[in-house]
Amino acid sequence: MPVEEFSLADRPERLEHCLRWLDDLDVVGVDVERADWRRYWRAAALVQVGGGGRVALVDPLALGDLSPLDAFLQSRVAVFHAMENDLGPLAALGVTPTRIEDTGIAAAVLGLPTGLEGLLRAVLAVELGGEKQAMQRADWEARPLHDDMLSYAAGDVAHLPELWERLQRRLVATGREDWYRQELQRVLSQPPAEQRREWTRTRGAGRLDAPARARLRALWDTREALARSTDTAPGRILGDEVMVDLATRPPTSAADLARRGVRRQAVRSYGRALLAALGAAEDRAPEHARRERRLPTEADRARVDRLRALRAQRARELGIDPGVLCPGRTLMAALLTDPATPGELRQSLGLHPWQWQQLGALFCAALGMDGAGAVPGATFSQGDRTMADVLNADALHHELDRLDGWGGTVERIAKTYRFADFTEAMRFVERVAGEAEEANHHPDIHISWNTVTLELVTHSAGGVTQNDIALARRIDGLGV
Length: 480
Description:
Blueprint: E1 5-9, H1 12-21, E2 27-34, E3 44-51, E4 54-58, H2 67-74, E5 77-80, H3 87-92, E6 100-102, H4 103-110, H5 116-124, H6 132-137, H7 147-155, H8 160-173, H9 177-189, H10 210-230, H11 234-237, H12 240-248, H13 254-259, H14 264-291, H15 298-318, H16 322-325, H17 329-335, H18 342-349, H19 353-366, H20 393-401, E7 407-409, E8 412-418, H21 422-439, E9 444-448, E10 451-456, H22 466-476
Parallel strand pairs: 1-4, 2-5, 5-6
Antiparallel strand pairs: 2-3, 3-4, 7-8, 8-10, 9-10
Helix pairs in contact: 4-8, 10-12, 10-14, 15-19, 17-18
């Protein structure tokens, strides 16, 4: 579905014209195309604003003053998709919207596709045009911008207001609006991306011994300082994979750096500083080793596996990605702090109230903690809604959209399966019985030779609840 109309604002009078053109919109989509792949600091090359098929493409490289755009956004709701990539570059331009929503965050807590292209397709049946990968590799700093690039950029925001309206209704219907607000606030309160970088996130760091980790930390700190001071992308100074290799087997000379994969220009410009960092790390290695956290034991790994399994099961029941409930990388790090109480466990995991409400009791039980009093609402409530509450019509419609072939009303849902013969049908029934026993929730099963119809309802609640949705999702997972 193409954008109806877009206009390029590359002169002050054009910016004023475009903002008047959009003046009737109370909710606008906002996006940024960046030109920072060579730089340390994120920078905006194009700002897109619009909705309802009308999009203004604001060129910050041609405009010195974007205060009219900032004033325009102050009186409107600005809808982003993955705003953490856009807020910093906008702030650097003096554009700081205050009423912000994010369709990517909403999609994550609803269990919908989090990529914009897939989300638009799933919710609005909108297909974005343009070659996404080619446009992501495009040089947005080059001028003039060709029409294909402008059309692609406009498509990223044209439908965001309508998309947000649909997602907001689903958040309310499913009782997850509070989850969304907590996640939104987390992103809004975090520091800029440049301040969130951590050396421990370097791929391969966890495999290193203490001396090598000390060398990696020294290399990382030096690379970071050089990148900041020269506004150079860290990877153009020293790639992560090469950095881990140098920390494992320290080079002895600048020539050795070149042989080990450091770019020649980087060797000339930064080689001396990198070698000095490695030398200093050798002198401080014992000190670093004393400060290192303890290494994980087999018992730690077994406990993490148990927590991962519990997280995955709960995520399946809620229909969301496990990482939304709790990032996997935090599990081992949290256990290595040796939390002794539920409060310490929650703090080390960094979970928000809604996440702790879903996982706290499960995690405490798995770790042998008395967590019942420390996990408010540990019956796995969803906002004001529990697994045993009957879904309203909107919530049921949302859940059925994400199931495969199930239909029905708030009174019961059903799905019919057909097989080659009676024997195959009975084998399927046996597999369903296993899932139902494990979930402690049982469907009504109707068999007619090669046809099996499953009906799900929570009889004690008098209608369809999240228990029924969770079992339907498990049955879909059988791959029939």
